[in-house]
């Protein structure tokens, strides 16, 4: 494969966009990827992982107005970083009981907000991010959230993973694959990246270069649950995995 060039890009096109286009031109697909995908679907058919009942898409009030639901989905995603779904879901329940709207969060002092979201990961930092983001949403978006990835990523504490997931959950628009630690780990293990990737963002670019776009929405939820139940960070259950004979990691792990 030819060495990729470092490209200085204009304001209209980020370096990430250029890298994504270069990956697509390579026209690479992993071997047996559809078989691997269908096997994971089979192992996930009961939909009983934590993400299935307590994921960020399950954390909003059912009776809230559309803009409040969108705000709540964004807050859930912000809380979910480095945090288990069970902890995020519990924190969201406390916030909703307290009153999870832009106006009410801005009226809430930092100490109270911290007690409501504790023990999510990096809760002190997230208190600051939530307050700053809420103020921006009030001043610039009429207490709604941005409807595009760029402006979502401009919010304090929001990165590409959150932005793409938020576009899907809040707006019903698929703009990219949300790659968290589970998707990043599993994609490397099952050989869905051409060469090992070091960051979730690099994994996202690799996946989007070959995975059909109509599967982008499914793959995050599918792999997160798979990572919570079987393809664990430590002691993965390779021996009972349907992909054990075709997964590069599994074939090495069960010898």
TrEMBL record:
Keywords: 4Fe-4S, DNA damage, DNA repair, Glycosidase, Hydrolase, Iron, Iron-sulfur, Lyase, Metal-binding, Mitochondrion, Nucleus, Transit peptide. Bifunctional DNA N-glycosylase with associated apurinic/apyrimidinic (AP) lyase function that catalyzes the first step in base excision repair (BER), the primary repair pathway for the repair of oxidative DNA damage. The DNA N-glycosylase activity releases the damaged DNA base from DNA by cleaving the N-glycosidic bond, leaving an AP site. The AP lyase activity cleaves the phosphodiester bond 3' to the AP site by a beta-elimination. Primarily recognizes and repairs oxidative base damage of pyrimidines. It is found in: Nucleus; Mitochondrion. One of its GO terms (cellular component) is nucleus. The keyword Hydrolase applies. Residues 79-229 form the HhH-GPD domain. Its main location: nucleus. This is Endonuclease III homolog. It catalyses: 2'-deoxyribonucleotide-(2'-deoxyribose 5'-phosphate)-2'-deoxyribonucleotide-DNA = a 3'-end 2'-deoxyribonucleotide-(2,3-dehydro-2,3-deoxyribose 5'-phosphate)-DNA + a 5'-end 5'-phospho-2'-deoxyribonucleoside-DNA + H(+). Its EC number is 3.2.2.-, 4.2.99.18. HAMAP family: Endonuclease_III_Nth. Gene3D superfamilies: Helix-hairpin-Helix base-excision DNA repair enzymes (C-terminal) (1.10.1670.10), Hypothetical protein, domain 2 (1.10.340.30). Pfam families: HHH, HhH-GPD. GO terms for molecular function: 4 iron, 4 sulfur cluster binding; class I DNA-(apurinic or apyrimidinic site) endonuclease activity; DNA binding; metal ion binding; oxidized pyrimidine nucleobase lesion DNA N-glycosylase activity. SUPFAM superfamilies: DNA-glycosylase (SSF48150).
